[in-house]
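## Example record

The block below lists the input lines for one assembly entry, exactly as stored, with component labels intact.
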Amino acid sequence: MHLSDEAAQRLIADILQGDTEAFAPLVSDYTPLFYSLHKRLLPFDTPENREDDVQEIFLRIFRALPTFSTGRSFFSWSYTIAINYIRSRRRKKRRGKQIKPLELDDTILLTLADTNSEDPEEMAVANEAETLLIRALQEVPESHRQVFVLRIMQGLSVQETSQVLHIPEGTVKNRLHRCREQLARWMENHDWQIDPPR
Amino acid sequence: MDCETCHTAINTWVAGQLLQEPHTEETLDDAVLIHIAHCHACSVHFAAANQTLGITGYAATAPADAVQRITRAVMHKTRKSRQFPGGKIALIAAVAVLMLIPFTRERTPFSEPDANVQQITLSLEAPEAETVVVAGDWNGWDTETHHLAKHTQQGVWEIELQLEKGTDYRYQFIIDGKDWIADPNAYLTVDDGFGGVNSVLEL
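Predicted structure tokens for the full assembly:
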């Protein structure tokens, strides 16, 4: 559960008045959100790069704080900065080298799915399912993938997704529906397995 | 029921759900659900279907140690960035002398020296400084706690610290609340991850 926008705005007011330490609770509170966002959008990055990128996201947020207008949602505003940075990282990676064949292995099992369960079998099932989903997401257009990750995996509302991506709410719903269809089709064609039997 | 029949049933159910917004309450037959409960592959299939449809929630998590590392690194950097408006870092001529001083303080008859603690003195020559503070691993990089005292007319600042032995400590001096510098005479430094260096104290 992240800080409420009201709590975040109080901290930001303190930061802008010179209390730099007030940034610490914001960072620790929002790190799981941006860490999981990064992991879902750049699943094949290394943990070291992931931590560096999340650090950079917070530094960009910090530098941009003077431009944050009170009354606006810090949640949506910070998410916009985060996803813009992750997009730029993705573009750089694409320019830098050929995309290698996507292969998931045990090292990138996500352990992110919320099973509300401590049953190891249920957790294993949820993790395998999310790993499969992340694999399938590589096959859909990036614009659709971003909507799906924000709306479904990160739990943003349609309105928040619309604000973060700067697209109309109708476009969010449309891309989400098409993304689900594409995911279901890909998974059905692959027998709902990362490595279907040959 | 075999797995193939189960897969077909789940695929049919997903196709039906995709036609409905919001999703319907329609569930799978009991026979399919019983099979899913006892078959790992089919339970993964069903879980992936639920995640695709957004019926199952997701958690936003990060490893606890990663959260700590990220928070510490970000705060270290923001403290420094606040101290360096415009990126102008005044280069202050400073010579630091690190002296490891044996624990020589006179002890009371009833106090036992703590063998796990070592007293050290950190010194920095900074004649024109108004304040000198040392921040490091031992105080969570706090810039308010450990102020050095000006001890000589030559502008040598000193502080005595008692630190636990058997640990490496990274640290920097902060001059006049804005200029972060590594200890120029420290025999060991490491990259601080932000383009600068930390001094290292090995006890």
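Residues 102-198 of chain A form a domain with the Arc Repressor Mutant, subunit A fold (CATH 1.10.10.10). Chain A touches chain B through 51 residues (CB under 8 Å).
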